[in-house]
Specification:
Elements lengths: L2 E10 L3 H19 L1 E7 L4 H7 L5 H7 L4 E6 L14 H12 L1 E9 L12 H4 L3 E7 L11 E2 L4 E2 L6 H16 L4 E6 L5 H14 L6 E6 H10 L6 E4 L1 H12 L9 E6 L3 E5 L16 H14 L3 H16 L2 E2 L10 E2 L2 H13 L1
Parallel strand pairs: 1-2, 1-3, 3-12, 5-10, 8-9, 8-10, 13-14
Antiparallel strand pairs: 4-5, 4-11, 6-7, 11-12
Helix pairs in contact: 1-10, 1-12, 6-7, 8-9, 10-11, 11-12
Length: 356
Amino acid sequence: MGRNYKIGVIKGDGIGPEIIDEAMKVLDALSANMGFNLEYNEMLMGGAAIDATGVPLPDETIQGVKKCDAVLFGAIGGPKWDNVERHLRPESGLLALRKEMGTFANLRPAMVYDELVNASTLKADVVRGVDIMVVRELTGGIYFGQPRELLKDRAYNTMVYTREEVKRIAHVAFEIAMKRDKRICSVDKANVLEVSQFWRETVIEVAKEYPEVELTHMYVDNAAMQLIRNPKQFDVILTGNIFGDILSDAASMLSGSIGLLPSASTGKGVGLYEPIHGSAPDIAGQGIANPLATISSASMMLRYALNESEAADKIDDAIKKSLAKGYRTGDLGAYDAVEICSCSEIGDIIAKYVSQ
């Protein structure tokens, strides 16, 4: 009997429905040959939810997500909803959903495809072969620490981490490293911040449970420089909320195209898998969006939520094969394109390859 998974699908706004449709097309082609079945449950969030229900995150979506094994999400937002009250903006729905799902770990891979090395602003020999996973703690640190206050002549924030918060994000990073090259660089500022000293000590404690993984440490300022100087030295980068916010954005630009990069927010229960780009309302409905980041997000979902690593590998290999043969959407047309394809054509190509 085949394995059955319940997948929540939130297409969202703008190009969201287009790119999600292509990811589902690939997943369906793949599951037919890999011995598992995906049951989709489509739900509303963002602008589409506002139009249908008056709120960006309906209770039906919250309850539906909790019954799923994973959630595949497109993108939300657009000028149509820019002038509504802040708590009713599409983005408020996403923040509320992440809170409801308890997602404390943000996974942001940065991989450079050989065929697109010239798309990066860095030299080809610097970025060729880059394959990094940034594991960012998402719900603690200075963004959420108390007390915090803005006064007339001064302002302050508090950077706080508990032992449990550090241990749980460290476990996520070590488990991921075990599926990769078994190397982790933990990034902190332990030379000047007590909270970073605490972070480092706790990560070292967790590392004892993973003797196969090589653990190193780096100060955040040096890590920022090293990402540009020699990004290939990194495999998994583990870091806190504010440092991860900065470093994951820097790492994402190594590939040269935001249309290629997936992400995942995981934690206590159901994970959320999504491309890092926005809803691009200016090109919605034109069939020219790049679905590769969303298809890659589906691969991450298979790997990290469903433990279907072989299936995830087939998607990753299919993407590489399509790029090697010169298939490009318009955003990548300047880089050795043999054929410029529509959003759905790229989905067809990837689906064909994963079926072989």
